[in-house]
Specification:
This is UPF0398 protein SAMN05216244_0370. By secondary structure, the protein is α/β, with parallel strands linked by helices. It is built from six helices and six strands. The chain has a six-stranded parallel sheet, with helices on both faces.
Length: about 190
Amino acid sequence: MDVLAVTGYKPMEMNIFKQDDPKIRFVKAAIQKKIIGFIEEGLEWVLISGQMGIELWTGEVIIDLKETYDVKLGIFPPFTNQESRWPEHMQQTYQELLLLADFHQPIYQSDYKGPYQFKAKNKWMVDKSDGCLILLDEEYPGSSRFFHEEAKKASEHKDYPIYTITPMDLDDIVQEIQMEDPDFWS
């Protein structure tokens, strides 16, 4: 797989409301673990639309991984100025990622016009990638369900693997990180 699309929940869907929430560390660790595995198997590009939450955190993970691995980041928002209504710290993170990305371009060269832009973005991301990674709890899919449905349609017609990070995977990462702390064992 050369190109991987990554998406998942927005912060509020994970009960994350502060930029320094400790849960973010565990989510990023889970994303990093999965992506390193893909990079070691030949992954070249990671595509995100730059939405708040999983996608921005993935972008930050990729920027960090670029110091060690040859991987590129592409950001393809559904429309221009998608971040205009976001909290200021999220807007700043987004703008920094756009500067550091290897490529970025909105799918629609206009501001928000309607929900069709999100649907087109999901289809575009699936069409341009060889597989996807979604942080998803199928019992509570949240906004990720729309991308997941598009990915499932693609997997019915072609070889399009759908990889997930589940709540159980996150629990495992939390345990791993806690067990790395020497104080954990005292």
